[in-house]
Amino acid sequence: MAYDQHGRAIDYLRISVTDRCNLRCLYCMPEEGVAWKPRKAMLTLEEICRLVRIASGEGFSRIRLTGGEPLVRLGIADLVRDIVRVAGIESVAMTTNGILLPKMAKTLKDAGLKRVNISLDTLDPAQFAHVTRWGDINDVFAGIEAALAVGFDPVKINTVVVRSLNQDLLSFARLSLDRPLHVRFIEYMPVGDSCGGEGLGWSESDTIPNEEIIGIINERARAAGLGDLVPCNSTTRGPDGWGPARYYHFDGAQGSVGFISALSRHFCSECNRLRLTAEGQLRPCLFSDDEYDMRHALRSHDDDAVRDMLRLALSAKPEEHHHKVGTKRLMSQIGG
Ligand code: SAM
Ligand code: SF4
């Protein structure tokens, strides 16, 4: 197990495999004008796998592939297969918009992918098309079905809650009732300078604190005869999580409802991760623009240089992000 200078065990690496995406969510990516990184600036699949091998030697055991949209990266299933085979890697997960899952879920499962998080911010087709700029919500629904059908476990639904979208939160929470779906409400984080300008211009006032979300859901759930959400405990466990979500469930539900509050109740003391951008920049903290040039280290063909860079990034993890928000990178470039 690797530890940072604040005594936190860090064993989780989130890897953005591409900055490209087949959607353009308003809060994540501008519709046009993104300066796509040239192909040679991106880490190759071999470089990513080599880094994972070295990181596993340093105590990293959990890998999440994200993006941009990881499923648009050519060879993604091969990458999953190669990472799964690395000694010391216990589990490989993916965060995806789900659109390509109907085509790819079986191949990914066969390659060894275990866990998927599918992002879905609204259940309303017109609002989905608006938020993603052109997406068809039926593709995501089909992606969720495919994920359940091939047996990914857990299947989580990530829902970023934005005040001005006025999402139907109870309908989301209801998805957890009859099937093993784990719905997680995530506070909107105003990161990525150019999105603030070119997206909706959402700001911190668009973040709804999780406590408020729980209140809204419980009020509506009571009115609908469902009763309140109750915290999961050792017998009614939420999914085996890698992160800071707090899980609740409705009485008798197969799934759970989780809350991730990066802003209102930040969880820096439990932080267990480093992030790698698609260009190979290692970020000790989501909210800080400090980056460590892993691509340069990898391309020096010296494993010791890679190891040193990893240790340097670990030792630079800040104790807290002090609620600083807004970074020069878009979320799609960091990987969420
Ligand atoms: N394309 C994939 C997807 O949408 O799941 C993976 C990349 S996306 C950047 C990862 C996650 O970050 C998604 O769940 C997305 O909703 C979330 N995200 C993006 N921008 C965000 C923001 N400003 N605040 C909170 N979450 C955000
Ligand atoms: Fe693409 Fe995911 Fe960002 Fe939406 S949130 S634009 S699907 S990377």
* Tally of separate helices: 11
Q: How many individual domains?
A: 1
**CATH architecture, please?**
Alpha-Beta Barrel
Contiguous uncertain segments of 5+ residues: 194-200
Name the CATH homologous superfamily: Aldolase class I
Whole-number mean pLDDT = 90
Predict the CATH topology.
TIM Barrel
Tell me the series of helices and strands, N- to C-terminal: EEEHEHEHEHHEHEHHEEEEEEHHH
Percent helix among the residues?
25-40%
Short description:
This protein is of the alpha/beta class and 336 residues long. It has eleven helices and 14 strands.
Describe the overall structure.
The chain is of the alpha/beta class and 336 residues long. The protein starts with a strand and ends with a helix. The chain has one domain: TIM Barrel (Alpha-Beta Barrel), CATH 3.20.20.70. The strands form 2 sheets. Strands 9-10-11-8-7-6-5-4-3-12-13-14 form a 12-stranded mixed sheet. It has a two-stranded antiparallel ribbon with strand order 1-2. Bound molecules: S-adenosylmethionine and iron/sulfur cluster (SF4). The site of iron/sulfur cluster (SF4) has 12 residues, from loops.
What labels would you give this structure?
binds iron/sulfur cluster; 336 residues; binds S-adenosylmethionine; 14 strands; globular; alpha/beta; TIM Barrel
